[in-house]
Q: What sequence folds into this?
């Protein structure tokens, strides 16, 4: 190479290096000097975790905070944890004023895992002016993933808690004693859904125990859960079940889950008044959702892991059958629905076709005697109770000697008031 061009190249490299050095200053947020703000950032007050949306290889976690925060979950097969799960959309990790969530993926069936939430309070004034507190670590909890090949199963179903703290505390105690693999909160978790504070108090912080931190919870929609200005935001706590499915993404409460020989199906009966009722002022469209659920139910009961289950239990809030021919069917303006005739017309043919054995309902606040199957209805309808002291019940299901046994217990009396036995589907 000739000397002059070579010197020119060296000169240009030198200028580039100098320019690079001149621009090597790393952007940083300014130091936090406000002691009161630092104290607030270090105390985001996270709630206990709510485990939900389990699948064959994943599970989701949601929790609340009292100030804008970021959050993630640490998890692993030992108390040492070792893995991190975050939720992100469009390249941005979760950051919110009230609710955080994360999805743990890559799980194996029939395996116990350890996890804890991590919350970091933040003051996000603008880009380049973001202050973060110290991470706040939740307690280490465990959960065990379902095993479809197991010959045992245990689950619990309850409804109509309506923010009744003594009922929630009694439920938590019995659930911890029974140790089910999952729980189904069968509608009317709240009175009316008016604010984030109400939802946090009535759900995430309800019993002040980790009863829903150690096992997944499924939540079906009750009529009261659909009411109120904050009802459309409940998905910040009850993470949507079918959000990634283009056809069924609006069915946020519908679920299907297999534990051992039992498949559990969740349905949403909607409001206990028709869509044209004046009290809704045109804001409800539940009938379209009920029609769509009939399609979802047919497809779901055909899924291999559901179709092969010896036992199928369905849960929905409002009953699908009434003995009294004059009982309100949910299609008239007077009063409120005792049962949902529209849902029954749409879903019963599918439930019969696939030989679903039992449908568990709530809504009536009265643990009446189960209605046995008949020539038109191939399934038993079993009723849960509610928060009134005499009607505080829980339904516990388990496999015993190759049969599914479902017992309804009165929590106030501490005794079983109904016991049903089901043989495997033919």
A:
């Amino acid at each position: 190479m000739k000397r002059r061009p070579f010197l020119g190249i060296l000169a240009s490299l030198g200028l580039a290096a100098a320019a690079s050095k001149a621009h090597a200053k790393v952007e940083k947020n300014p130091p936090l000097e406000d002691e009161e703000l630092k104290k607030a950032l270090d105390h985001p007050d996270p709630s206990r975790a709510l485990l939900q949306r389990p699948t064959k290889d994943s599970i989701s976690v949601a929790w609340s905070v009292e100030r804008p925060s970021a959050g993630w979950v640490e998890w692993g097969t030992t108390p040492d944890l070792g893995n991190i799960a975050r939720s992100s959309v469009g390249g941005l990790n979760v950051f919110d004023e009230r609710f955080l969530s994360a999805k743990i993926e890559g799980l194996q069936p029939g395996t116990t895992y350890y996890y804890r939430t991590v919350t970091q309070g933040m003051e996000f004034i603008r880009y380049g002016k973001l202050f973060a507190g110290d991470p706040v670590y939740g307690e280490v909890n465990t959960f065990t993933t379902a095993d479809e090949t197991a010959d045992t199963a245990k689950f619990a179903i309850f409804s109509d808690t309506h923010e009744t703290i003594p009922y929630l505390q009694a439920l938590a105690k019995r659930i911890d004693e029974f140790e089910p693999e999952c729980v189904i909160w069968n509608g009317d978790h709240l009175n009316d859904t008016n604010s984030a504070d109400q939802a946090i108090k009535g759900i995430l912080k309800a019993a002040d125990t980790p009863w829903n931190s150690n096992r997944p919870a499924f939540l079906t929609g009750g009529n009261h859960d659909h009411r109120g200005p904050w009802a459309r935001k409940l998905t910040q706590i009850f993470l949507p079940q079918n959000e990634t499915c283009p056809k069924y993404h609006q069915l946020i409460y519908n679920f299907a889950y297999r534990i051992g020989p039992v498949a559990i199906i969740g349905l949403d009966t909607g409001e206990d008044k028709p869509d044209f009722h004046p009290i809704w002022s045109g804001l409800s469209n539940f009938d379209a959702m009920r029609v769509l659920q009939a399609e979802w139910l047919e497809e779901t009961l055909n899924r291999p892991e559901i179709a092969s289950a010896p036992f199928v239990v369905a849960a929905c809030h409002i009953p699908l059958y009434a003995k009294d021919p004059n009982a309100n069917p949910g299609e008239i303006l007077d009063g409120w629905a005792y049962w949902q005739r529209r849902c029954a017309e749409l879903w019963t043919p599918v439930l019969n076709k696939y030989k679903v054995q039992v449908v568990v309902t709530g809504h009536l606040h009265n643990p009446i005697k189960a209605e046995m199957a008949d020539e038109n209805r191939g399934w038993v309808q079993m009723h849960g109770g509610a928060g009134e002291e005499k009607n505080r019940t829980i339904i516990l299901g388990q496999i015993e000697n190759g049969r599914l046994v479902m017992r309804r217990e009165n929590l106030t009396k501490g005794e079983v008031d109904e016991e049903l036995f089901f043989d495997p589907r033919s």
Observations:
- Residues 319 and 375 are 18 Å apart (CA to CA).
- The first strand starts at residue 50 and ends at 52.
